[in-house]
Design brief:
By secondary structure, the chain is mostly helical. The protein has two domains: 1-19 and 117-149, no CATH class; 20-113, no CATH class. Helices cover 53% and strands 5% of the residues. The protein has a two-stranded antiparallel sheet with strand order 1-2. The longest helix has 16 residues, at 96-111. The two termini are 14 Å apart.
C-alpha cells in the first residue's frame, strides 16, 4: 500500500479500519485462531493512538505491521506510550471512542460480507485479501479506481 500511495499520490486516500479477527472483540468471528489471540489489544492500542494523536497513527501502524510478526504486546504498549505519553495512552484507552470505533469497524466488516481481510474498497469494487504484488495492486487500482500513475 505504501508503494501504491507513492505511485498515485493525491489520487487516492487510504483509510484503515482496524478489525481484529478475535471473538473477544469482534462478534462476527466464531472462533479465534492462534495468530489473532492478542488482536483486540493491538487494535485498541492502535485506535488509542489514532484518537489521541491522529498524526502519529500511520507511524504507529507501520511500526506494528512492518515486521512479519507483530512485536510483543508489551513493546507495542511501550511504543504507544512513547507517542502519547503514559498518561495520554491511559486516557486514550479509557476513552469510550476506542471501543465504539472497534465496534463500528467490526460492524462494517460484517456488512461487507466478513471473510478474508484485508478488504480494499475502490469505487464500489471490493478487493479481498493481500494482492500478490504491488504491480497487481496498482493494476487493480487503475482498473477499478480510474486513476493513473
Amino acid at each position: 500500500m505504501q508503494e501504491a500511495l507513492a505511485r498515485f499520490g493525491s489520487q487516492m486516500v487510504l483509510a484503515l479500519l482496524p478489525t481484529p479477527m478475535n471473538a473477544n472483540c469482534n462478534r462476527y468471528v466464531e472462533a479465534t485462531k492462534a495468530p489473532h489471540e492478542l488482536a483486540c489489544e493491538y487494535a485498541r492500542l492502535a485506535l488509542a493512538v489514532w484518537i489521541a494523536r491522529p498524526a502519529a497513527f500511520a507511524e504507529y501502524h507501520n511500526w506494528l505491521m512492518d515486521p512479519l510478526e507483530p512485536p510483543p504486546l508489551a513493546d507495542a504498549r511501550k511504543r504507544a506510550a512513547e507517542l502519547l505519553g503514559p498518561q495520554g495512552l491511559e486516557a486514550a484507552l479509557a476513552d469510550g471512542r476506542v471501543d465504539q470505533r472497534l465496534s463500528d469497524n467490526t460492524t462494517i466488516y460484517h456488512l461487507v460480507g466478513q471473510g478474508a481481510i484485508p478488504k480494499l474498497f475502490v469505487n464500489g469494487a471490493v478487493l479481498v485479501g493481500s494482492p500478490p504484488s504491488t504491480d497487481k495492486l496498482c493494476e487493480s487500482l487503475e482498473k477499478y479506481g480510474g486513476i493513473k500513475r
